[in-house]
Design brief:
- Helices cover 40% and strands 16% of the residues.
- A hairpin with a 5-residue loop joins strand 8 and strand 9.
- Strands 8-9-10-11-13-12 form a six-stranded mixed beta sheet, sandwiched between helices. A five-stranded parallel beta sheet has the order 2-3-4-1-5, with helices on one face. A two-stranded antiparallel sheet has the order 6-7.
- The radius of gyration is 22 Å and the shape is globular.
- By secondary structure, it is an alpha/beta fold.
- It has 15 helices and 13 strands.
- The chain folds into three domains: 114 residues, Rossmann fold, CATH 3.40.50.300; 151 residues, no CATH class; 96 residues, Trna Endonuclease, Chain: A, domain 1.
Length: 379
Amino acid sequence: MKRTLDLVKNMKNNSYFLFGARGVGKSYLIRETLSGQIDYIDLLSSKTFLDLQSSPSNIETYISKKWVVIDEIQRIPELLNEVHRLIEEKHITFLLTGSSARKLRRSGVNLLAGRAYKSQLLPLSWKELINEKIFKLDTHLHYGGLPSIVKNQDPAEYLYSYVDTYLKEEIQAEALVRNLSNYARFLDAAALMNGEMINFTKIANDAQLRPNTVRDYYQILQDTLIGEMLEPWTGSVKRKAIQTAKFYFFDLGVVNTLKKIKVIERNSDTYGKAFEHFIYLELKAYITYSKKRIELNYWRSKNGHEVDFIVDGNIAIEVKTTKKVSAHDLKGLNALSEEQHKWKHMLVVSQDTQAKSYPNGISQIYWEDFLNNLWNGKY
């Protein structure tokens, strides 16, 4: 299926890093899109890895074309010095893929500042799935958007295998943690707190770990692209804002598997959290692929008023699963509207199919209409 990220267009402009968690389809997309146009250097191949690890300068013997892909570049960070040289001397364009930025950043290697852009491939978005006419909301909320899920006859089994593979290959192979069982307990606790304000002490107690260890583990999740912090918006004056971040995993299916969820009932709290997470992932995907410098935050006042998402400081979005929006659903947006702040849009995104306007500049919009507007750049 057609992905939003255009590899050919990017490679015509510059060398760049393409990051993405395991399983989002980086290698497949490269093979399908660039086959015949590139030299492909796979660092997951033991023979290639051992050769270039012992002598990074050997990379030139693998190259005959002007476009070169190095898959899983974080396995040999020292190669970046040779990449830099070949960009400068031979004018070769590189696509450098990776599922972790941690090893690159911590090894102090040459990160090609100014000579390579950065991009990211995410799980399949609503836009990509709807274009293929295969999107089903309840299925997506349960199993997420990893490409291998789409036509899998046993998505639950695949996701269990994925989580196990992530622990063994990504974490253990790179020696990111000393004790894998401690990290596994942390993952379970972090999944239960997905989309909630992070309480390091509570998670540490639940996982039987120290709070500083929990902080380190959250950093590993970010470095391996398994999730991301959602920082609070602190621009409110009338109501003082909470300054604690939230954390969202990169995929609904992965977090549901970690939470051991078997069924998501329509009117349950689990369904509501999954729907909010889904809208977050769509906002994240649009911002990532559009390459716009847009901040994504949430807002919560000290006295408990909350709005799910603040986009670039001028769009406020509250997400509801209700099929009939009521005045109660506007509570957070009404509180935010009292701030001396100019809002471009204040939206309730819900499963109510009726569009409606309220006082204080608040509008309600059906979730599919909202996503259509989002991906068509109307906001």
